[in-house]
Amino acid sequence: MTDLEPNTLNLTPDVERIAAALLDPARKYRLTDADALILMREAPVALLGTLAVARKRQVSGDNVYYNRNIHIEPTNICVFKCKFCSYRRGAGEPDAWYHDLDAVERLATERQGEPITEVHIVGGVHPNHDLEYYCEMIRRVKRALPHVAVKAYTAVELHYIIEKAGISLEEGLKKLKKAGMEAIPGGGAEIFDPVIRGQICPEKPSAEEWLATHEAAHRLGLATNCTILYGHIESYEHRIDHLRRLRELQDRTHGFDAFIPLKYRNMHNSMSAIGEVSLPEDMKMMAVSRLYLDNIPHIKAYWPMLGIGATELALSFGADDIDGTIDDTTKIYSMAGAEDQRPRLSTERMEQLVRAAGFVPVERDTFYRPVLH
Ligand code: V47
Ligand code: SF4
Q: In testing the pocket of ligand 2, which one of 81, 83, 84, 85 has its CB within 8 Å of the most ligand atoms?
């Protein structure tokens, strides 16, 4: 990247300074919050792509990861009413669904013999269940599919059920781990700023509670992911504040495997009037995430949310993971207006997408170990 000529791009002096610092590998330059804001506001998106891919190559070389996974969404009945959510329903409402433990076990059993390596369980925060119910769900999925990793429950679900059990986060997570939970997905982080959080998801656990849940999980050696929900009423400052809190926690624990910037999709929810941000804005978010979160190894372009074309493009903006085959098992994004109403990708299609972007596809397991069939 040393032959890049930043001046041909008409850069502001600040952007030129930051780009030069990032492009000098000997400096291992860490972006400040002010730098990140300058990049968001002033840097041409093409430059951000160049910088982010250079950083991505230092971490994962030419590799771009995917996995063979399914989701199980046991219910969309939820005690909370996040304003951006197109998916939750109250009990008894049309389109509400609920799979009891036997039904969840059947969903897992149907997959016996398939080469999936991960089951991602996430859903609404149902009012009626206790911690033991969530443990039993994991045990049943593991009984049906002993070889898969169970990545289960957002910090929001975890915090709710463990608080209800009246025990510490660490004790609650230990019980779930004993039942077979091996990893925790990144959902529920939304935006940490208390004012914005209070406007879009006022009832949800606070930023501090979300972070404490992941910190406790890291102490127990559980792999976890983290997310941001961007592109609604937040400012660039709020996004950087969110990234800073994640980077600070990661400096202490090194427990996050991947960061997933989730673009707000605006169909069928009470914030629909806001609209959605543009594709260049999505790429900017991807690239600044890669550059700022220098201690989180993987940046995921989640294709059911971004769409397949934008996911391919995101690989030129620092992403090194495209999530998995999914096989039409999640409704969160289709209900919010994403282009794939029945999200499903073959491994061939995933590999083709990665190669088209100029990278080498690597099938991984939940813990980013290569899978050899
Ligand atoms: O926390 C809900 C988001 C998240 C909308 O860890 C919305 O590998 C955009 O976290 N527009 C749950 N986003 C999904 C999630 C996730 C997905 C894939 C992989 C992983 C992982 C985690 O979905 C929620 C919320 O931020 N969400 N509604 C919406 N209208
Ligand atoms: Fe419930 Fe999650 Fe939807 Fe919020 S985003 S209403 S917690 S299902």
A: 85
| pTM of this structure | 0.96
End-to-end Cα, the chain, rounded Å: 36
Instruction: Report the 10 Å Cβ neighbour count for 192.
Output: 22
C-alpha–C-alpha distance, residues 200 and 370, integer Å:
38
Question: How many Å lie between the centroid of ligand 2 and the Cα of residue 159?
Answer: 13
Q: Whose CA is nearest to atom 8 of ligand 1?
A: 185
The ligand that comes nearest to the alpha carbon of residue 269 is: 1
User: Which pLDDT score is estimated for 328?
Assistant: 75
The number of the ligand nearest the C-alpha atom of 159 reads 2
Q: Which two structure tokens, joined as six digits, stand for 238?
A: 């709020």
For the residues of 22-61, what is the DSSP string, one character each? HH-GGG-PPPPHHHHHHHHHHS-HHHHHHHHHHHHHHHHT
Q: State the Cα–Cα distance between residues 94 and 107, nearest whole angstrom.
A: 22
Pocket around ligand 2: residues whose beta carbon is below 6 Å from it? 78, 80-82, 85, 87-88, 124-125, 156, 201
pLDDT of residue 1: 45
Nearest-CA residue for ligand 2 atom 4 is 82
User: Hey, is 206 helix, strand or coil?
Assistant: coil
CA 139 to chain centre: 24
User: For each successive 10 residues of the chain (373 residues), what is the average pLDDT?
Assistant: 59 97 92 98 98 97 97 95 94 91 96 96 95 98 98 98 98 98 98 98 98 98 98 98 98 98 93 95 98 98 93 98 88 73 86 97 98 87
* Residue from 349, 261, 342 nearest 302 by CA: 261
Rounded distance from Cα 146 to ligand 2 centre (Å): 29
**Of ligand 2's atoms, which has the minimum distance to the CA of residue 81?**
6
Q: 260: CA distance to ligand 1 center in Å?
A: 9
Helix axes 131-144, 169-179, angle to 10 degrees: 30
Question: Could you count the other beta carbons within 10 Å of the beta carbon of residue 291?
Answer: 26
Can you read off the two tokens belonging to residue 309? 């074309």
